[in-house]
Amino acid sequence: MKIITRYFNRQLAAIFIMLALVLSGLAWMVQILTMLKFLIMYGLSLFDFLFLTSLMFPFIISIILPFVVFIASLFVYNKMVSDNEVTVMASVGMSPWQLARPAVWLAIAVAAVHWTLTLAIVPASQVKFYNTQWEMRYGLAHLKLQESAFTQITDGLVVFVNKVSGNDLSQVMLFDNRDPKNQMTVLAEKGKLINTPRGLSLVMTTGSVQMKSETFTVGTFGTFDMDMNVADKNMDEQFKVRRIPTRDLLTFVRADRNNFSDAHYKLLLAEVSSRFLAPFMDIILVLIGMLAMLKMSLLRRRASWSAPIAVLGMAATMAAYMSVSNMVVSLAGLYVFAGAIAIAIIGLLWALRK
After folding, report:
1. pLDDT of 207-223, one tens digit each?
2. Within 10 A of 154 (CB to CB), how many other CB atoms are there?
3. Residues 168, 203: Cα–Cα separation, whole Å
4. What is the spatial distance between Cα 330 and Cα 338, in angstroms, rounded to a whole number?
5. Which residue, 141, 152, 127, is CA-closest to 56?
6. What is the C-alpha to C-alpha distance for residues 266 and 246, in angstroms, rounded to an integer?
């Protein structure tokens, strides 16, 4: 029995690792293609660009894990069914549960990794990804002012600097035409670039400002703080539930729901479902696959239908899970959903052992 178990484990582990690497690599390549604008528009180095895209890896892996473990189990057992290995093992007294046990243990191990990702690693990596992306878009990282040259910061915002020393500027001229009805021209002896919660700002000292709206105004200043971007980090970060730490997320869903709009509270519940209940799908999908493959493989005339039925069962189960998780509107409904998942796992185990 130990030899057979080791044989199953080797087959399952090899296929699982190969599929995980291939699918995560393909997903990462798609992510790279969608984020090429950061490499082109913001002048990032290749290392910084790869670092930014790699921060999406934990989230990508958490999405594909249920499918990877299901496909790996289905592939290995379908091959054994085709080679009559399952029939031979069953003929010597091995039950479907004994045959499925290596795949079920793999699913449990994958679910444990999945929980680690969804509860801790994915929220932390999403925060890091957002902060890095925001800094590259709106912070000092992407801005490279050239001496004695006009630099367009954003549409309608142009800066001329005579001398640049790090973030310190000398002889600055700034033209702001982002609002054509309120044009502004600023001249200053010195300036300094700083990061603020609103984005990049230029603090200028000792200069003059000309404003043209319905009237024309000219004045002087000692210090003048000019926003260089229209992005507000705090506003852009509002209600990104994937970035909320798990402890805070649980506090929010247990708090008075009047603190949130119905749409926001529904998003919180969906995120809780994704973090706590989605890893159970790793186990459920494997149990569905094993039930179809092993039970039907012993019925000769139906063996060829086992793999398609397993795939249809997987698709229907995932569609049902995603639909229900998005329909939950209360904490009680979330508890009912979790209970239904537990009952489904118990029922599948019972059917496999029966």
Report:
1. 888 888 878 888 888 88
2. 15
3. 10
4. 13
5. 127
6. 16
Q: CA gyration radius for the chain?
A: 29
Answer for the pair 186, 226: CB distance below 8 angstroms, yes or no.
yes
Query: What angle in degrees, to the nearest 10, is found between the helix axes of 306-327 and 262-276?
Result: 140
Please give the Cα distance from 248 to 124 (Å, whole number).
13
Q: The pTM is what?
A: 0.75
Find out whether 8 and 107 touch, Cβ atoms under 8 Å: no
Angle between the 331-353 and 280-297 helix axes, to the nearest 10 degrees?
A: 30
DSSP secondary structure letter of residue 51: H
Element (H, E) at 88: helix 85-91
Nearest to 96 by CA among 233, 259, 293: 293
Buried b (16+ CB within 10 A) or exposed e, 39-48: beebebeeeb
Q: Cα(151)–Cα(191) distance, rounded to whole angstroms?
A: 15
